[in-house]
């Protein structure tokens, strides 16, 4: 459990006519030492992404570097991330959401407190992250400090970005490629041709029946 710092920051109120003491809740501007020192450490994840980038074949391959230089394409982190998202959209999106889930849950747990000045449990922090990430917001749990509110705003913005990316990935997965569109159009064309032939044959059949009925009517008259 993250430590409360400073230890004497909690105000103690003595109830009148009793010897019981009640701890007042933390102010909105209160930030624990673990949150102040722990949250900036997550910026080190950028080093992990840089490690993946410099060990990628897109960067290590000299032919790719030359081709990018001739076409004035910068082989930087932006190109690396977009190339991998375009190649493995489902895998990249799932890894990103799982990473953000655990990091965001820990940040909310470190910055949020209950009325008794205890940190949220990890399960409650995960639930708060889920309702914030999906922008649902049931209201049973809410950020209690400015630090947790800032984290919640960042999580909601990331959730909107992930939702848009998920819609793009689903639309790409559900759309037909060129060969599938050709086969689908060919099958639809055959079905339409058969339907037109059936309608044409029915028209000729009804016309012949009408002609026969008219001939019979003239004969009887």
Automatic annotation (TrEMBL):
Record key words, sorted: Membrane, Transmembrane, Transmembrane helix
Any GO MF annotation of the entry: small conductance calcium-activated potassium channel activity
* Pfam families according to UniProt: Ion_trans_2
Ranges that cross the membrane: 28-47, 91-108, 151-171
- The answer, when asked if Cytoplasm is one of the entry's keywords, is no
One Gene Ontology term, aspect cellular component: membrane
Q: Which parts of the sequence belong to the Potassium channel domain?
A: 97-174
Q: Note the superkingdom of the native organism.
A: Eukaryota
Q: Does the keyword Transmembrane helix apply?
A: yes
- Return the Gene3D superfamilies for the record: 1.10.287.70
Instruction: List the protein's name.
Output: Potassium channel domain-containing protein
Organism annotation: Adineta ricciae
């Amino acid at each position: 459990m993250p430590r409360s710092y400073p230890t004497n920051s909690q105000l103690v109120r003595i109830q009148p006519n009793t010897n019981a003491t009640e701890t007042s809740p933390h102010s909105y501007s209160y930030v624990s030492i673990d949150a102040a020192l722990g949250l900036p450490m997550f910026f080190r994840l950028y080093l992990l992404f840089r490690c993946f980038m410099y060990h990628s074949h897109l960067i290590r391959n000299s032919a790719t570097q030359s081709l990018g230089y001739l076409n004035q394409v910068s082989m930087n982190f932006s190109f690396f991330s977009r190339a991998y998202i375009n190649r493995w959209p489902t895998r990249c999106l799932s890894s990103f959401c799982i990473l953000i889930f655990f990091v965001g849950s820990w940040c909310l747990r470190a910055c949020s407190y209950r009325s008794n000045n205890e940190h949220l449990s990890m399960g409650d922090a995960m639930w708060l992250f889920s309702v914030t990430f999906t922008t649902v917001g049931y209201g049973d749990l809410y950020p209690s400090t400015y630090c947790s509110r800032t984290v919640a705003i960042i999580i909601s913005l990331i959730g909107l970005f992930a939702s848009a990316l998920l819609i793009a990935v689903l639309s790409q997965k559900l759309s037909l490629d060129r060969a599938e569109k050709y086969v689908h159009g060919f099958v639809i064309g055959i079905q339409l041709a058969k339907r037109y032939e059936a309608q044409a044959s029915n028209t000729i059949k009804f016309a012949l029946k009408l002609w026969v009925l008219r001939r019979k009517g003239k004969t009887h008259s």
